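User: Predict the complex with 3,4-dihydroxyphenylalanine.
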Amino acid sequence: MERVLVSQDAQFDAQAVTDAVAAGIEEIGRASSSEELASIRTRYAGAESVLTRAGRSLGSLPPADRKDAGRLVGKLKADFGRAFGARQKEVAAAEEARELASQTVDMTLPVRRRPLGARHPLPRLMEDVEDLFVSMGWQISQGPEVESEWYDFDALNFGPDHPARQMQDTFYVKGTQARDAAGFVGSNMVLRTQTSSDQVRALLTRGVPLYIACPGRAFRTDELHATHTPVFHQCEALAVDRDLTMADLKGVLDKLAVAMFGPEAKSRLRPSYFPFTEPSAELDLWFPDKKGGAGWIEWGGCGMVNPNVLKSAGLDPEKYTGFAFGVGMERTLLLRHDINDMHDLVEGDVRFSDQFVMGE
Ligand code: DAH
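Assistant: Here is the predicted structure with 3,4-dihydroxyphenylalanine placed in the model:
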């Protein structure tokens, strides 16, 4: 087709527009991104492109040439559009594949390089004990660790000469000379030697009927060795109500034994003496896993609340009765998991605690 002049600046040049579109299609073939494709489309099919200008110039052609020229422009547009569309699909697929590849996670890489700690089994055990009491409708009470001698001893019917009061058994702390809840001024302060110290405190502050468990720390001047530590944990339990009997005590003890040691566990009471209970008993646990065969193991102390303790709390022992018991938490943990040395509990080696995290 020969060149035809259509206006001063717009000629229809069939060869030029064919070459231009061929060059554009070639560039499309080499394009590797959607940005590149977009720029190619602007250059070869945009408002100022040779192809668009050729289309615009059709109207100025002599009618005889217009049909062929129009057909050519239409074919070139279609060729360009097809090439563009096909390449666009390929490029988009490649881009998506690249994007996905950049987001893949290597499942074989090591994770959590920083070692994690593990909770100590003792507080977890104490939470289990608390849960049991709460499930029975009891309250949890936590008295102070620095306690007045009155709550730790006097209110619990310990006589002034009781050996537990001696300096070699008990840590004494300088008193504050302040008046305490019982109106006692300047009483000597001690690191509580037993969580039983919470008994009268709870009776005075919470009133009756009272069903409380007091899990917590207690202190005695023992050397650290395989079976003792100077800082240890107990759980005290106290129920004061009308008409409570030793049968109620026994029922709760058996429930605690089963919760701690499984369905075969049971408790046994052996006559004993504690100043704050009358009658008093040692609490033994039936222990199927005992070394050398199943048998009874000493676990704690218990009894019916001594009337003098009820009087300390301003209660009438003719109206109210109660029972109490205390068990050592370390001892419970040692028995439960066959741990032989108290050192393991206090040394803070995470490898010890780690063993109990399994299966959580
Ligand atoms: N407080 C006692 C101790 O530390 C344990 C105990 C014995 C608690 C008899 C009690 C009880 O509540 O009734 O050895």
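DSSP finds twelve helices and twelve strands in the chain.
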